[in-house]
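Render Ribonuclease H-like superfamily in 3D.
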Amino acid sequence: MKQELAGVSNRISLTCDVWRSISIEGYICLTAHYVDESWKLKSKILSFCAMPPPHSGFELAKKVLSCLEDWGIEKKIFSLTLDNASANDNMQSILKDQLLSRHGLLCDGEFFHIRCSAHVLNLIVQAGLKVVEGAVHKIRETVKWIKWSEGRKDLFKECVIDVGIKYTAGLKMDVSTRWNSTYLMLGSAMKYRRAFPLLGRADRSYKHCRKKSPKKPEKAL
């Protein structure tokens, strides 16, 4: 792989992401993208490893630069695509200065930093979803409630059968950083919407998408 990267005659673009696992451990993944001699786009993971705190711009830049040096491509970089985390802004600025000092960037690094279009799109959709935030919250909590235990899953299946729903794909849980997962969650919930009121009557601890009982008229004084 190192020989292949050494033989790349054009520039290499990078994508990088940092995240925390459920157990709060930090990870970083750095991927190289380039066109080979046969004009085929190649994507190769250069590093997938633990990223201990702090996740500051300086430490991230240090980690990425070390990886580029290990692969011997620090003078072949064209661009780096990142999401909009504030630490990434600092990281790319520090890394750009380091690469410029080695004459490793074109056009003085004008095209070095690229913001992830998928992340930008997610921010736009999440802002739009605030209009229906209350409804989305109820559906998300409903899915969590049903998936909490096997007993609740079985009870929900009984409600689905009782109301005659034939859809069998099941409810989907979303991830807040992936707008398309919220779309899939809402779509699946719509298929089962007739089962939720029955679930509320079958288990009084379920409170999220139940039909509210009509208020009794106040007695005349």
